[in-house]
Design a protein that fits this description.
Order of helices and strands: HHHEEHHEEEH
Structural class: alpha+beta
Number of domains: 2
Strand content: 5-15%
Number of strands: 5
Helix content: 40-55%
Length: 208
């Protein structure tokens, strides 16, 4: 029940009590019976308005508890709208921090929303293709690769294997893994030297 409705009902109840008191005085004059009628009217008005206020307050508290639970608060902590707004502000601040940290990553990765739009990208992904911008179309950038469990996509003259990670609300985290193996410069030099010297037993160090 809205606060305005509660106020109007309370005013109507007390107005009826006042009319009852006036009617008692007009009927019985300034007598103990008129005072009794007025007292009974006031007591009834007080009981009715207290009951309405209590029920309205309990319903409002239940709504606050449900909203607080939805935003991650315990029912006993969701005592006011201010507490819920403060919690939402803190969660939004943490979300911005995570998004900023995700954007700074050099490893290419993208977050795709349920509508097929890019909602988050790392710096590594943005550096590969100018179409890799927040709000862009995942189909234009990745084609059908992001819909398969393991797809192959070319970005910025490089080929990547896409790894899908399902998130909440239909969102996807697409990790771009280079299609192939990276060989460090010193390992490559050692390999070339071994070929020149005819050392066919050369092996790469598995521990780097």
């Amino acid at each position: 029940m809205r606060r305005l409705s509660v106020a109007l009902i309370a005013n109507a109840v007390w107005m009826l009590a006042a009319l009852l008191a006036v009617g008692g005085v007009m009927l019985f004059g300034a007598s103990p019976l008129a005072l009794l009628v007025a007292a009974l009217g006031c007591a009834a008005a007080l009981a009715v308005t207290a009951t309405i206020g209590f029920r309205s307050d309990r319903a409002f508290a239940e709504k606050l508890g449900a909203i607080g639970e939805a935003v991650g608060l315990k029912p006993q902590d969701a005592t006011s709208v201010e507490a819920i707004v403060t919690s939402l502000g803190q969660r939004l601040d943490r979300a911005h921090q995570f998004k900023a940290a995700f954007h700074r990553l050099k490893h290419p990765a993208l977050v795709i929303g349920a509508d097929g739009r890019l909602t988050g990208l790392t710096a590594g992904a943005e550096a590969l293709d100018r179409r890799a911008v927040e709000g862009g179309s995942a189909d234009d950038l990745l084609g059908e690769a992001h819909t398969a469990e393991d797809g192959l996509v070319s970005m910025g003259r490089r080929r990547f294997v896409t790894e899908r990670h399902e998130l909440s609300h239909g969102r996807l985290l697409i990790e771009l893994v280079p299609a192939g193996y990276h060989i460090a410069d010193d390992d490559f030099d050692a390999f070339v030297t071994a070929l020149r010297q005819g050392r066919t037993g050369f092996r790469f160090d598995p521990w780097g």
